[in-house]
């Protein structure tokens, strides 16, 4: 059952998702789609909807969006256990990701609308996250050393597909240049001021890139926005006596994250656990690093 804080945000998500009749890759601009895999490689709505059928006589849904919303706990759970849901803030132009940097790198990036400058290394391992709550957790609401600025970075749909197609799921053997992890999601609408609340039944995607993939990411940036101020205000709201009221007042400024299906071939989506066939996620025996 969804909590009150989840309901506040989910009502905003549902309002958008009900108007979406195609997966995100089909909603992208023609120039982006021309660089992405062909439509024959992209999972159809029927294939996604059939995952929810409870019997052979069940009719598939008209849109995958309600189906995906059920997976994340907003309306129950009906997707297979081996399928994870990519949730993010996206539009026709592209998808937003979050990263935390120090002031010097962030100032340069915001001013030039791209990454660079003397202190930036374009080939080092970097982790991008479409979950705003998760980057708040990772950076301590932009209070940790060298993570005092949170940037919202936009990539085209084609670039996201290209990066993900070169990644491996960590639980499936990892990846040398590209890695996907599914970590417990964090609740943007509630927390104790030290970290957003952990959500055990939902997972958020983390994408690790290094070497040539990190360079591709840097070249693919469409826009960069500084989200540090809203990060600090979310922390203050989480520390307020009435967190629900404080967060409801911030709601118009918060990112709207909803299910997203990358424009990747079905084998890639299965490998990354976004479609059936990749196997269930298993907890690592080693204590994983925080990204």
UniProtKB/TrEMBL annotation:
As recorded in Swiss-Prot or TrEMBL, the protein's gene is named PAO
InterPro entries on file: DUF4291
Q: Where is the composition biased (Polar residues)?
A: 52-62
Tell me what organism the protein belongs to: Symbiodinium pilosum (Dinoflagellate)
Q: Name one Pfam family in it.
A: DUF4291
Using the UniProt annotation, give all residue ranges assigned to the region (Disordered).
Answer: 22-73, 175-195
**Which residue windows does the record flag with biased composition (Basic and acidic residues)?**
180-189
What protein name does the entry list?
Answer: PAO protein
Residue ranges annotated as compositionally biased, kind Low complexity, are 26-40
């Amino acid at each position: 059952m969804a909590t009150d804080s989840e309901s506040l945000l989910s009502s905003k998500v549902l309002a958008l998702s009900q108007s979406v009749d195609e997966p995100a890759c089909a909603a992208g601009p023609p120039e982006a789609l021309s660089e992405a895999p062909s439509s024959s490689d992209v999972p159809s709505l029927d294939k996604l909807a059939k995952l929810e059928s409870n019997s052979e006589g069940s009719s598939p849904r008209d849109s995958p969006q309600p189906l995906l919303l059920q997976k994340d706990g907003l309306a129950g759970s009906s997707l297979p256990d081996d399928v994870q849901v990519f949730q993010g803030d996206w539009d026709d132009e592209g998808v937003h990701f979050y990263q935390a940097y120090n002031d010097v790198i962030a100032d340069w990036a915001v001013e030039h609308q791209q990454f660079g400058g003397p202190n930036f290394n374009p080939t080092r391992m970097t982790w991008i996250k479409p979950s705003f709550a998760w980057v708040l957790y990772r950076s301590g609401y932009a209070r940790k050393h060298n993570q005092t600025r949170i940037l919202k970075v936009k990539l085209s749909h084609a670039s996201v597909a290209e990066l993900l197609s070169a990644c491996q799921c960590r639980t499936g053997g990892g990846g040398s240049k590209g890695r996907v992890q599914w970590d417990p999601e964090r609740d943007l609408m509630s927390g104790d001021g030290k970290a957003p609340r952990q959500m055990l039944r939902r997972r958020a995607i983390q994408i690790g890139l290094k070497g040539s993939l990190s360079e591709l990411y840097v070249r693919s940036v469409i826009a960069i926005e500084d989200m540090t101020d809203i990060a600090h205000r979310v922390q203050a709201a989480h520390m307020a006596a009435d967190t629900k009221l404080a967060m409801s007042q911030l709601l118009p400024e918060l990112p709207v994250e909803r299910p997203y299906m990358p424009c990747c071939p079905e084998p890639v989506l299965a490998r990354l656990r976004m479609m059936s066939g990749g196997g269930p996620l298993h907890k690592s025996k080693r204590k994983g690093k925080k990204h």
